[in-house]
Amino acid sequence: MFFTTKAEYGVRLLIEVGRQGNDQPVSLKAIADAENLPLAYLERIVALLKRAGLVQSTRGAHGGYVLARKPEDIHMDEVVLALEGSLAPMECFVDDRADDGSGRVLCSHHDDSGRGCATKLLWTRVQVGVTQTLAQTSLAELIDFQTRQLPRVGERPAPVQRTPTHA
Amino acid sequence: MFFTTKAEYGVRLLIEVGRQGNDQPVSLKAIADAENLPLAYLERIVALLKRAGLVQSTRGAHGGYVLARKPEDIHMDEVVLALEGSLAPMECFVDDRADDGSGRVLCSHHDDSGRGCATKLLWTRVQVGVTQTLAQTSLAELIDFQTRQLPRVGERPAPVQRTPTHA
DNA sequence: CGCTATCCCGACCTCGCTGGTAGGATTACC
DNA sequence: GGTAATCCTACCAGCGAGGTCGGGATAGCG
After folding, report:
1. Average pLDDT over residues B89-118
2. What is the SS3 string spanning A75-128?
3. Is B36 within 8 Å of A115 when comparing Cβ atoms?
4. pTM of this prediction?
5. How far does the CA of residue A15 sit from the closest CA of chain B (Å)?
């Protein structure tokens, strides 16, 4: 289990908002009804998306949310990062790019200095792989997938040999 | 946080066992001391590895564990799967290959039949990506990485652009 | 034989986080 | 002013992660 329901609900929320176009905002109530999700919980989730600058809100009656950017420019690495708070595959991973901006990854394990844990190599690869996979999927693609309803073919995922070939 | 400490400790355990060669078994006590990990907890972790056929045990005094295969033939997808029990990125993912053996992935969400959740596309890609990344890393490679100790260069992981290029 | 090192196994415990609720403020359209 | 919506903070129950404990079975060794 990599991700929590925050990611699941948050992505669904973005899809619903994106399906509407930016002409008028979509209320959380409408999304909660459409996706059968708890409204109060959605409120907290959408706050994460707003804080990350992915949606914009309009308060008051007939208010709601619109996408802050075009769906083509919203990629899932940013979305999941905003929702989950981190993309580290392991507890001891700290993403530290405030120092020199080079995006290096630390392993905060106790005796790291002595031995240099080899698991770091593994988790680094996993993190890179996941981030890439997420970055290659745009919100536009998900909306498109949801819209043209692939009646029954969608049952079968891509074969394990082939890397998902981009948006 | 994708993985728990079971994966972390289990991989370290395999590395320690693999470093020794198969001439004589390695005791958990030795591993617990070397890696500074709780012995009682390691016992439960190694049980998972044994059940998956990755290590073999010898009981009694001077007993311990040896690898069941050559390190080159032990790949991390199998290891992490044995330790974590599942590689599903989301709760609603059920890996069901008992039916027809085709390895299709189900999403057990409530109204899946009606809409076909688009998030399934996303999580499927992530799962495939992670599985591939893990499968491309062998235990032999981790042992090698640990052994030739890269005194200080190991601080910097592989750049984010490049997919890890095989074992 | 008995000691001791080791694997084996199940019960138990604690703590933090996930998932969700409650209740209220604030804002804006009509 | 009513009402529909966003916002915000506190609260709560359940569960799994991470780890401990105690005891059993097993095998080398003097």
Report:
1. 54
2. EHHHHHHHHHCCCCCCCCEEEECCCCCCCEEEECCCCHHHHCCCHHHHHHHHHH
3. no
4. 0.83
5. 8
